[in-house]
Design a protein that fits this description.
This protein has 302 residues and is of the alpha/beta class. The chain has one domain: Indigoidine synthase fold. The chain is 46% helix and 14% strand. Strands 1, 2, 3, 4, 5, 6, 7, 8, 9, 10 and 11 form an 11-stranded mixed beta sheet that branches. Strand 3 (52-59) and strand 4 (62-65) form a beta hairpin. Helix 3 runs parallel beside helix 12 (270-294). Residues 298-302 have low confidence and may be disordered. One of its GO terms (cellular component) is cytoplasm.
């Protein structure tokens, strides 16, 4: 069921650092051709920081760990399934093409021995009273992988998301931040569990957690300051985007991609530029963390 690229297979066999990358950013997160460009740049940033990239997706009834250029391009074509844990087996059985979310990516990564994943922002608890919870959260609660991200997506209920993480025992480490980042924005009022100054500093914490717990850990990195969308400005953009979606009666699974598209247009590209910048940065940070994890010595090292 798993097809592992030779480069990734060799790195894992030799205890070299590997970083898993999700593929929904290609199929559903960014417009073409920027989606493929950013996917390539993330892989290049992982390599430049000393690790091996392993973008994960589903093709022809198998989980592919490490993709070819042709597969990256194929993920940008229409009709690619968005794969989470509820439909992963269905897409595999149908032999369709599927782009993995955070939840599906860490499930796959853990099963082939990859400890670190990079993404933009995790899913979380949606706004409103219906308690719509992303499958990313329960996946994190039961999958021992370190996820490097810029917090949860700003369109979510961040307070409820942070509470969910605490309740289910998922530690949140902040790199150069005391607060849980809000994807497009650097600052919130929600604290992280511990602050470190570099991803290398986070490695000892991550190493202990992955040894003693069967759950994930978040390493949060704020969006680079020069590309931040301040909270007040973002809230204005979000209100306008929500009004547009309500007028178009967009609901369910279509909400998030439609909302991100509307935000990019209403903000005149500011949210898109922030998204691209944090994806590149998080890939580098995840690679630095993965490298540091392979260099750990002592009783907590793998």
């Amino acid at each position: 069921m798993f097809v592992i690229a030779e480069e990734v297979r060799e790195a894992l066999a030799n205890d070299q650092p590997v970083v898993a990358l999700e593929s929904t950013v290609i199929a559903h997160g960014l417009p073409y051709p920027k989606n493929v460009e950013i996917a390539r740049e993330m892989e290049a940033n992982v390599r430049a920081a000393g690790a091996v990239p392993a973008t994960i997706a589903l093709f022809d009834g198998a989980v592919h760990v490490g993709l070819t250029e042709a597969q990256l391009e194929q993920l940008a074509e229409p009709g690619v399934e968005k794969v989470n844990l509820s439909n992963l087996s269905l897409v595999l059985a149908s032999k369709g093409v599927g782009a993995t979310t955070v939840a599906a990516t860490i499930w796959c990564a853990a099963r082939v021995g990859i400890d670190v994943m990079a993404t933009g922002g995790i899913g979380g608890v949606h706004r409103g009273d219906d308690w719509d919870v992303s499958s990313d959260l329960p996946a994190l609660a039961q999958t021992p992988v370190a996820v490097v991200c810029s917090g949860a997506k700003s369109i979510l209920d961040l307070r409820r998301t942070r509470e969910w993480l605490e309740t289910w025992g998922i530690p949140v480490v902040g790199v150069e931040t005391d607060v849980f980042p809000a994807f497009f924005s650097r600052l919130t009022e929600l604290p992280v569990d511990v602050r470190v100054e570099t991803p290398e500093d986070a490695a000892s914490i991550v190493g202990v957690h992955l040894t003693v717990r069967e759950s994930g850990i978040l390493v949060t990195v704020p969006v680079p300051a020069e590309h931040e969308v301040p909270v007040a400005a973002f809230n204005r953009f979000l209100a306008a985007a929500n009004a547009e979606l309500a007028a178009r009666n967009i609901r369910g699974a279509d909400v998030t991609p439609a909302l991100l598209d509307a935000l990019a247009r209403i903000s005149e590209g500011a949210t898109l530029r922030a998204n691209e910048a944090l994806l590149r940065n998080n890939a580098t940070m995840a690679a630095r963390l993965a490298v540091a994890l392979t260099q750990l010595d002592g009783e907590w090292a793998d």
